[in-house]
């Protein structure tokens, strides 16, 4: 049953109403709230231990590291981040590693000369021959003893082949709640990386075709050609790593340099790098290569501009090899550190496609920023769904469930008929978990629970359920109708995005994540109270071949709290009856999967 979100102690939650704003907290907690340093954990024998893949770097910012504003050059910071992450990856792999890709980086603040940069990197999860490395950058002021976060990034590294052949990486063993959370989320981030390029291209094509006929007034605009920059760098031994390949961080630093020059030509001022979009290294570069770097401002918005940068390499008379393409967002700050209004730009005839695609990327960038990073003060509980943000909403949906499931401070409230009810109060939010076991294979449980239309057979709260749209094979949007919470009240309806995930590895669960979305074609009506779900869903663990643990999670919201308040208070056992019905439903239907709709399978 969909269950919405609440705040306060259990007593106050059960006796008072909840506001929409106060319900926006926990499982979708902003990822900016990462601790600057996770303490060492204690093993069972009492020994203090640190993550074996963790690598730390501390650098004091000297004038030679700074730009014209007396602030640490973003390029220099990228070099330090790449070096630290590479050392962490190599510590885990036991062999040489290369940078394959870097996720979006958002720079929260700048770093001045004399301050200390602290960089911590550790492997979150290893796959076959690649691994995700989390990088946390903070700044320290030695005189005031203050520390603050600068950015948080994820990079993918690949272990280089050895003489023995392709490297098979050992698995990472998470030992703390935070490590378990990142380990689980790493699988979802990897899925998004693998489909990122294809989805971005589809969205850019769609958005460009929709905006391609717009007539813009370019009077007094700066010609884009004026911002074009081309520079060549000779790769020397100091630019290479111990594998004689050009540092990925060095390439990023050179790209940032030409992008900064390009941005400066538009605004005739000193720009500040605010973000770098996710990018992939297409191929290696080596000592002796000539690296050709090209940059141009693709579009200027009111307070920011997008600069496109391309890096290509060659040796002798060979053709250019594409190394990397990146899109960087710059701002120009005034004396109060507020963004200034920028001049408009006039695209060249051959640059109109870049101009329109930059508009589409800005929209995608906002979706990534406010959906994936879950800034709850800026995004509503129910987010509008459309094809341009479907990938990010799906990611957010599954990640929120994984973060909720990774909490280790659940309190057992009651237990009956082999069904356990747990609660969790944290950050002024009430969540609950219902757990049971069934003698049905995990994959069969997953298939039977994936189609919400079948839930009416075991959950009396689901009066009606219809499919609105099948976004893709992993995501479906449903409209669910539930009974009124009062005798004379209106029935409730929910517009739910259901995101399904099969295990990434043998030790992972099956997941069915639920959250509310908004569709223009299904607005709230007078006949129904529109309910909302922030985070809910099933985690399905295979414990034996035909024995499965089912955990149902829900971050309580005002629209659903009345359905479960008496169970949490111990005044009712309706939830136990519901999950007993669920167990019976699974037992009765485990052999009938052949008759399920193709979309479910």
Automatic annotation (TrEMBL):
<keyword id="KW-0443">Lipid metabolism</keyword>
<comment type="pathway">
    <text>Lipid metabolism; fatty acid metabolism.</text>
</comment>
<dbReference type="InterPro" id="IPR023393">
    <property type="entry name" value="START-like_dom_sf"/>
</dbReference>
<dbReference type="InterPro" id="IPR006683">
    <property type="entry name" value="Thioestr_dom"/>
</dbReference>
<keyword id="KW-0963">Cytoplasm</keyword>
<keyword id="KW-0809">Transit peptide</keyword>
<dbReference type="Pfam" id="PF03061">
    <property type="entry name" value="4HBT"/>
</dbReference>
<dbReference type="GO" id="GO:0005759">
    <property type="term" value="C:mitochondrial matrix"/>
</dbReference>
<keyword id="KW-0719">Serine esterase</keyword>
<feature type="domain" description="HotDog ACOT-type">
    <location>
        <begin position="225"/>
        <end position="336"/>
    </location>
</feature>
<dbReference type="InterPro" id="IPR029069">
    <property type="entry name" value="HotDog_dom_sf"/>
</dbReference>
<protein>
    <recommendedName>
        <fullName>Acyl-coenzyme A thioesterase 11</fullName>
        <ecNumber>3.1.2.2</ecNumber>
    </recommendedName>
</protein>
<comment type="function">
    <text>Has an acyl-CoA thioesterase activity with a preference for the long chain fatty acyl-CoA thioesters hexadecanoyl-CoA/palmitoyl-CoA and tetradecanoyl-CoA/myristoyl-CoA which are the main substrates in the mitochondrial beta-oxidation pathway.</text>
</comment>
<feature type="domain" description="HotDog ACOT-type">
    <location>
        <begin position="51"/>
        <end position="163"/>
    </location>
</feature>
<dbReference type="InterPro" id="IPR040170">
    <property type="entry name" value="Cytosol_ACT"/>
</dbReference>
<dbReference type="GO" id="GO:0006631">
    <property type="term" value="P:fatty acid metabolic process"/>
</dbReference>
<keyword id="KW-0276">Fatty acid metabolism</keyword>
<feature type="domain" description="START">
    <location>
        <begin position="410"/>
        <end position="579"/>
    </location>
</feature>
<dbReference type="GO" id="GO:0005829">
    <property type="term" value="C:cytosol"/>
</dbReference>
<keyword id="KW-0597">Phosphoprotein</keyword>
<keyword id="KW-0378">Hydrolase</keyword>
<dbReference type="GO" id="GO:0052689">
    <property type="term" value="F:carboxylic ester hydrolase activity"/>
</dbReference>
<dbReference type="GO" id="GO:0052816">
    <property type="term" value="F:long-chain fatty acyl-CoA hydrolase activity"/>
</dbReference>
<dbReference type="InterPro" id="IPR002913">
    <property type="entry name" value="START_lipid-bd_dom"/>
</dbReference>
<dbReference type="Pfam" id="PF01852">
    <property type="entry name" value="START"/>
</dbReference>
<keyword id="KW-0496">Mitochondrion</keyword>
<keyword id="KW-0677">Repeat</keyword>
<dbReference type="GO" id="GO:0008289">
    <property type="term" value="F:lipid binding"/>
</dbReference>
<dbReference type="InterPro" id="IPR033120">
    <property type="entry name" value="HOTDOG_ACOT"/>
</dbReference>
<dbReference type="GO" id="GO:0006637">
    <property type="term" value="P:acyl-CoA metabolic process"/>
</dbReference>
């Amino acid at each position: 049953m969909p269950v919405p979100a609440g705040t306060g102690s259990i007593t106050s939650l059960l006796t008072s109403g909840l506001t929409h704003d106060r319900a926006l907290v926990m499982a979708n907690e902003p990822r900016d709230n990462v601790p600057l340093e996770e303490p060492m954990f204690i093993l069972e024998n009492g020994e203090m231990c640190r993550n074996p893949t963790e690598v730390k770097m501390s650098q004091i910012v000297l004038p030679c590291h700074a730009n014209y504003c007396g602030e640490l050059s973003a390029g220099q910071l990228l070099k330090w981040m790449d070096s630290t992450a590479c050392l962490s990856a190599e510590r885990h792999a036991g062999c040489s590693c290369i940078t394959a890709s870097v996720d979006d980086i958002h720079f929260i603040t700048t770093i001045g000369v004399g301050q200390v940069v602290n960089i911590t990197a550790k492997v979150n999860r290893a796959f076959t021959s690649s691994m995700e490395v989390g990088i946390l950058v903070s700044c320290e002021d030695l005189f005031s003893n203050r520390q603050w976060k600068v950015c948080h990034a994820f990079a993918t590294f690949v272990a280089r082949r050895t003489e023995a052949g392709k490297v098979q990486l050992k698995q990472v063993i998470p030992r703390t709640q935070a490590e378990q959370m990142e380990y689980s989320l790493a699988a979802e981030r990897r899925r998004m990386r693998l489909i990122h390029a294809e989805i971005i291209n589809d969205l850019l094509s769609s958005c460009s075709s929709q905006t391609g006929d717009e007539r813009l007034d370019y009077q007094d605009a700066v010609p884009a050609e004026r911002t074009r920059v081309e520079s060549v760098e000779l790769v020397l031994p100091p630019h290479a790593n111990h594998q004689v390949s050009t540092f990925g961080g060095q390439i990023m630093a050179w790209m940032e340099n030409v992008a900064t020059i390009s941005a400066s030509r538009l605004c005739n001022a000193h720009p500040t790098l605010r973000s770098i979009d996710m990018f992939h290294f297409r191929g290696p570069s080596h000592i002796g290569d000539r690296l050709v770097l090209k940059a141009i401002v693709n579009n200027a918005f009111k307070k920011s501009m997008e600069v496109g940068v391309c890096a290509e390499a060659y040796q002798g008379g060979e053709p250019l090899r594409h190394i990397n393409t990146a899109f960087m967002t710059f701002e120009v700050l005034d004396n109060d550190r507020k963004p200034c209004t920028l001049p408009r730009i006039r695209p060249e005839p051959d640059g109109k496609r870049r101009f329109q695609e930059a508009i589409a990327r800005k929209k995608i960038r906002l979706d990534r920023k406010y959906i994936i990073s879950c800034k709850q003060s800026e995004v509503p509980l129910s987010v509008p769904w459309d094809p341009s943000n479907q990938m990010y909403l799906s990611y957010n949906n599954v990640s929120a469930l994984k973060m909720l499931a990774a909490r280790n401070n659940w309190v057992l409230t009651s237990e009956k008929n082999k069904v356990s009810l747990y609660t969790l109060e944290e950050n002024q939010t009430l969540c609950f978990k219902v757990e049971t076991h069934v003698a049905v294979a995990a994959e069969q449980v997953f298939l039977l629970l994936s189609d919400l239309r079948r839930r009416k057979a075991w959950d009396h709260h689901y009066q009606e359920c219809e499919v609105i749209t099948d976004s893709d094979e992993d995501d479906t949007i449903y409209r669910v109708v539930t009974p009124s919470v009062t005798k004379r009240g209106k029935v409730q309806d929910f517009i739910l995005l259901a995101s399904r995930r099969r295990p990434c590895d043998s030790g992972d669960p099956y997941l069915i994540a639920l959250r509310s979305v908004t569709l223009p074609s299904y607005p709230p009506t007078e006949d129904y109270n529109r309910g909302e779900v922030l985070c809910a869903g099933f985690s399905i663990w295979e414990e034996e071949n035909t024995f499965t643990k089912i955990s149902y999670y829900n971050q309580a919201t005002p629209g659903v709290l009345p359905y479960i308040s008496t169970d949490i208070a111990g005044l009712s056992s309706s939830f136990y009856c519901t999950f007993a019905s669920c167990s019976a439903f699974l037992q009765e239907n485990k052999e009938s999967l052949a008759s399920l709709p193709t979309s479910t399978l």
